[in-house]
Amino acid sequence: MPPIWPLKHPKAHRRDLDALITKYSVAYDVPERLVRRVVHRESRFNPGARNGPYWGLMQISHPTARGMGYTGSAKGLLDAETNLKYAVRYLSGAYKVAGGDESQAVRYYARGYYYDAKRKGLLQETGLDGSWKRNGPTREAAASIQPASLPEGAAIPIPGVAPIQASYAAAGQ
To answer: Where do the Transglycosylase SLT domain residues begin and end (predicted)?
Structure first.
């Protein structure tokens, strides 16, 4: 998939980002509002944001993304979906180490949480031991998806919701 930034239509861009944020918050069992909070804090929803060694929507560093399984170049983290895939994965570890405290998770995300995870015996669960294995949503997260209401005719797929197939039959047939 080519990068979704920049798009000519900011509203379409934001809808695409919204769908990706929903997808990865569900995939890594992190509250969507927490992901949005970090994206807003780090880049104001700008996938092309750069600040020193930090890249993209969630301002993740290349070494941190590699620790979460990313194998591409640092510049590849400017792709919104790539950035969210690895940065939300990292945020999910911060959220676990924080015991579900969203404010603490934001602080851990910003400063790192390796030693806290180690002290709490959570290195493997957070993927910080180098053995990140979870590729998709947990069963609990997938079961908790609430369908979002979109404008009629919206073409953005909602993660976890099967598309409705419309049919047409002429009158009198």
So the answer is: 20-113
Please state the pTM of the whole predicted model.
Answer: 0.72
Say if CB 147 and CB 161 are below 8 A apart. Answer: yes
Cα–Cα distance, 173 to 159 (Å, whole number) = 36
Contact status, residue 87 vs residue 93, Cβ threshold 8 Å? no
- How many residues would you count in the chain? 173
Six token digits for residue 41: 């804090």
Q: What is the tens place of the pLDDT at every residue in 65-118?
A: 999 999 999 999 999 999 999 999 999 999 999 999 999 999 999 999 999 999
Contact between 98 and 108 (Cβ < 8 Å) = yes
